[in-house]
Amino acid sequence: MDQRQTRDPGAHDPGAHGPTGTPADTHDTADTHDRTGAHGPPGTPDPTLGEARDPTADEQVGAIGAKAGRGLRWSLLGNVGTKATTFVMGLVLARLLAPEDFGLYAIALAATTFVMHVNDVGIIAATVQWRGRVEDMAPTATVMAMAFSTGIYGIFWVIAPYFAELAGSAEATPVVRLLTAVILIDGVTAVRAGSLMRGFGHDRLTRANIAGSLVNAAVAITLAANGAGAYSFAAGQVAANTVTGVLVLAWAGLPFRLGFDREVAARLLRFGAPLALGLGIEAVLMNADYVIVGAVLGPVALGFYLLAFNVSSWVPSVIGTALRYVTVPSFSRLAEQRPEALSLGVQRSVPLLVASVLPVAVVTATLAPEIVAFLYGATWAPAAGVLAVLAVLMVVRMLTSLAFDVLTSAGATRATVWMNLVWAVALVPALWAGTHWYGVRGAAIGHALAGVLVALPMAALALSRAGVRLAPVPPTLLRPLLGAALSAAVTVALTGAIAGVAGGTDGGPVPLRLCLAGGGGLLVYALVVVPADRLRALGPLLRPGRPRRLGRTGRLG
Question: Residues annotated as region Disordered (predicted)?
Answer without folding.
Answer: 1-54
